[in-house]
Amino acid sequence: MESTNKIAILGANGKAGKILVNEALEKGYQVKILTRNSTNTEKINKNIETIIGDARNFSTIQDLLQGCSAVINAVGQPKNESYIFSTVTKHILEAMKESKIKRYILISGGSLNVTGDQKRIVNKIGATLFKLFLPKMMQDKYKELQIIQNSEVDWTIVRLPFVIEGNGIGNIKESLVDMPGIKIQNGDIAPFIIKQINSDRYVRKCPFISN
């Protein structure tokens, strides 16, 4: 596909997603967002295009990705519904292949273990507790991980600690082996994520970031 400055963002109404949209606009990108309910976002900024629909619907994802050069997935889990993470990523990767889009960035959690991790004991315990108390969620997360790792796109999975509201402190710690801190302000997530669109530093890798 032709290179464009338009990116697709899923989960744009979430704690991390809403800051991502603003950061992308500030960096000169046009943004397509997916929402389940109509909003007045388009009226506020002409560089935002809103697609109304459900991320579990493949045709909706096709519409969202049309004309884009990168995809950022910050989708959250709907309340009282089956886990959607692997289904959404599967749809995204299939639509990316159709549209010849190569760059995929997924926001995930620090409880996700990948080969090469060297987590401290406290973080190992945390990951184990997630498996014990949220087994279905973690099963879906690992299914999603496998789907991504088996794909041919230039993917990055960014693993986060506890996310708090804030404008950001400008200090981001990064690691490929362990979570360097216990929390991060959502204002610090966005600059890191948007920077990855045109960076190959973490392609096919799963960095941890924190304050």
UniProtKB/TrEMBL annotation:
Occurrences of domain NAD(P)-binding (ranges): 11-199
Q: Which GO MF terms are attached to this record?
A: oxidoreductase activity, acting on the CH-NH group of donors, NAD or NADP as acceptor
Question: Which Pfam families did the record assign?
Answer: NAD_binding_10
Record-linked PANTHER family: FLAVIN REDUCTASE (NADPH)
- Protein name (Swiss-Prot/TrEMBL): NADH-flavin reductase
